[in-house]
Amino acid sequence: MLRSLHSGLAMFWENLRMSVANIRQNRLRSSLTILGILIGVTAVIALITTVNGVSSSISSSFTSMGAGSLSVSITGSDLKSGLSREDLEELTQIEYVEGIVPSVSLNARVSKGQNYESSVSIAGRNAYWFSINEDALSRGRAINVLDEESMNSVCLIDSEMVETFFYGEDPLEQMLYIDGNEFLVIGIFDSEGDTSISGMMGGTPSILIPYTTANRLNNTTLITAFTVYTQGPSYAEGVMTQMESILDAMFSYEEDCYEITTMESIESTMEEMLSMISALLAGIASIALLVGGIGIMNMMLTSVTERTVEIGLKKALGAKPGQIQSQFLMESFLLSLAGGVIGVVLGLLLSGILCNAMGTGFAISYGAIALGVGFSAVVGILFGWAPARKASKLNPIEALRRT
User: Alpha helices, DSSP H only, in 104-232?
Assistant: First the structure.
């Protein structure tokens, strides 16, 4: 038993030594073969790790926007096409509701003196929005309840608007014209500080005004979209049930007048989409691994042809077919594994660069690493099997005739 084990280990190390020696002897050909596997593994690791980083960043964004939030879209009925300010106040009274942020937006012409921008993105906000996005306000004051109730013509602008209309000046307490209406600049905001669902789903506006004022500019008094913030994820289901009951009554129990989407369902949908994209990209990148496997097979078949005499001598000296086969399989496995390991390192480096460029989090995916290395090793064995089998079946007499 011990003698058999010792013999097996000796054979393994001998095959390993000879495989390494043959790979080193054919450096250029071996490098080109490894390159095929390397490119495939690099692509798989980089794509999966980058998508995972994007997924983690999106999950963090949803969490920061408030787990348990509800997004409500109003399609309306023939009698009621949207909700009034009083309707929103009634919904705010639901137990465990912390606040509601209406979503009102428009594009308008903004001007000051001779300077103007023809289509500027403007969003209507309320006082509660600023309470959950404290980091959004850079200077000045936020929109308050009095601004909402009085539909005051006040606005906050971002840094781009400051550069465009107030270069070298202090914009606070100065005037801007939005579609010919005079607005007082009361603050400067940072769009990156917006962690609300309205900010993510509604895009990045350049100017913020009271939502009631935005409705006035849109010639309406009704709200058709808003976000409800609950006291926590555990309350979302109960709040949604109560809200459905109130909304049903508001729309006289007509069907399809509104749609309520939970933050968890949005996040789940996003994760499913990213998983599908990740699988698709990994599948496409795996084609490079198959091409690399074909390269390994080609090299090993060439190696068998070149080493026919060597194989014949070994068989004449008593080498068994299994020993010949294991040697060639070992060589194929080492080539593929080398490409896999180098590909993992390059893939992680490339993924780190991509994540940094996109501003997303970087998280090492051990599953992707296992997939890359494992797949490369399997490719080496599968595509090396046929050449190894061919070598093991060579007739020693026919092989020695070629000397």
Answer: 127-132, 145-150, 159-165, 197-201, 211-217
**Residues 6+ positions from 140 with CB-CB distance below 8 Å:** 156, 172, 185, 186, 187, 188
Q: How far is CA 339 from the centre of its chain?
A: 26
- E strands, 27-144, are 70-74, 97-102, 104-112, 115-125, 137-140
Helix or strand holding residue 206 (H, E)? none
Q: Counting Cβ atoms within 10 Å, is residue 321 exposed (0-12), middle (13-18) or buried (19+)?
A: middle
Q: DSSP assignment, residue 202?
A: S
149 by Cβ neighbours in 10 Å (0-12 / 13-18 / 19+) ranks as exposed
User: Strand 97-102's sheet: what is its strand order?
Assistant: 97-102, 225-230, 70-74, 258-262
119: left (phi over 0), alpha (psi -120 to 50) or beta: beta
Contact 129, 198 (CB under 8 A): yes
User: Can you read off the two tokens belonging to residue 72?
Assistant: 């409500």
Query: What are the backbone dihedrals phi and psi of residue 172, each rounded to the nearest 5 degrees, phi first?
Result: -60, 135
pTM: 0.58
Q: What is the pLDDT, as a whole number, of residue 104?
A: 93
What separation in angstroms does the CA of 94 have from each of 13, 132, 149, 329?
74, 19, 21, 70
Q: What is the dihedral of CA 107, 157, 102, 259, to 10 degrees?
A: 50
What are the tokens at 57?
């960043």
Q: pLDDT for 247-295, tens place per residue? A: 999 999 998 899 988 766 666 777 777 777 777 776 776 676 677 777 7
Residue type, 284: I
* Both tokens assigned to 107: 């594009």
Residues ≥6 apart with Cβ < 8 Å to 213? 124, 147, 151, 152, 153, 154
Write down the mean pLDDT value for the chain. 80
Residue 34 burial (10 A CB sphere; 0-12, 13-18, 19+): buried
